[in-house]
Amino acid sequence: MWIIAVTLLVFTGAINGDDWSYDYETQWPGACTSGTQQSPINIMSRDALVDKHGAHIKGPLVFRGYSNVNASGENNGHTVIWTIEEDEPMPILSGGPLRGNYSFLQFHLHWLSEHAIDGMKYPMEIHFLHIKTGLTVEEALQRPDGLAVIAVICQVHSGEESEYALEELSPMLPKIINQSKLPASVIDLTRLFSPNMQSYYTYHGSLTTPQCQEVVTWIVMDTPLIISDTQYKLFSKVDVGGIDNYRSLQPVNRVIYRSNASLTLPSSLGLIAALLNLSTTMSSIVSKGVCTVVNLKRKFWGNKVQDCNKTE
To answer: Required cofactors, per record (predicted)?
Structure first.
C-alpha cells in the first residue's frame, strides 16, 4: 500500500489537503514560498557545466522494466496521472547523477512545460516520479536525494508519425476529462521517452506542487518527444481547474550539470563540407597571390596585366 500512499502524499496535496491552485501560487504552503532551491527553472545551456570527467554524472542512465507497466489512470484535479499498481514489479532507474537505485511510482503530465531551456517553453512536459529504493515515504521526504524525476519535454508536430508516443494514452483521455479514475492497463513507458535518454541536464531541486519539498534530483531531457497536434488538443479538454497546470519558473541560483551526450558535435558530412570549403578558400587565396606576383612581372616588361579578381 505504500506505493499508492506516496503518490497521494506527494502529488495530490494530501499533506495539506487539496486546497491549492495554480492560480494562487503565492499562497502555496511549506517550502513553496520559503525554499531556496525550488523547481522548475529556466536552464541556460551556456551556463550548465559539462561533466566531462564524470565527477557528478557517473556513467549512463540505466532503465530497467519500463516496457510493460501495469498502471491505472486518474484525473486528480491538478493533472492526469498514471500510477503503478500495487504488488507489480517496479521499473528501476539508476546511473547518471543518481547514487543507488530508484523505483518508479508514477508519471503525470504538465501543459505547458514546467521547465524552460534557453528561455523556451514547450507545449508539454512528462514527469516520471521515482523514490529511492528501500526508503519509506517519510524518509524520502527528509533526504535531499529521496526522489528522482525524469522530465521529458514534448514538441507538437503534424502527421501520423507523431501519433506513436501518446497512442496508448489518447483513448483514455476522454474517459478522464472530468475527475475520475480508470482501471489498470499495461502501458509501454518507453514510448514516452525522449529520443535520446542520455542527453540531459541535471540539478537538485524540489517538487513542483505543494509542499514543494527540496528532495528531488531532476533529470531534464533536452531532446523533445514528438506528439501530434490532435493528441495535444485532447489535454486542453481535461478538467484541471484551468487551461493549464504548470508552476511558474523559479530562481536558478545553483549548479546545473550537463551530460556529455548533450553536446552537439558537427556531423561527418558537415565537417567534410566545412573542410572542402576551407580548401577552396585557401586555393583561391593562393591563386590570387600568384596572380599578383605575375602581374608585377608583366608590368615590369610592359605587358597587359590580368584581373586577379577573376582568377579561379
So the answer is: Zn(2+)
Per residue in 153-199, pLDDT (tens digit) is: 999 998 777 889 999 999 999 899 888 889 999 999 999 999 999 99
CB neighbour list of residue 47: distance below 8 Å, 6 or more residues apart: 252, 256
Mean pLDDT value across residues 132-159: 94
Class assignment of domain 2-261? alpha beta
Distance, in Å, from the CA atom of 49 to the CA atom of 124, rounded to the nearest integer, reads 26
Where b means 16+ CB within 10 Å and e means fewer, 45-54 reads: eeebeebeee
Residue partners of 205: CB distance under 8 A and separation at least 6? 37, 38, 39, 40, 41, 214, 216, 218, 250, 254
pLDDT at 71 over 80: yes
pTM equals 0.81
Within 10 angstroms of residue 111's Cβ, the number of other Cβ atoms is: 21
Closest of 205, 192, 198, 200 to residue 219, by C-alpha: 200
- DSSP for 227-259 reads EEHHHHHHHTTS-SSSS---PPPB---S--EE-
Interatomic CA distance for residues 67 and 187, integer angstroms:
7
- Catalytic machinery residues: 78
Q: What is the pLDDT of residue 161?
A: 75
pLDDT over 60 at 117, yes or no:
yes
Rg (CA), the chain: 27
- Domain limits, CATH 3.10.200.10, in the chain: 2-261
Rounded Cα–Cα distance for residues 201 and 219 (Å): 6
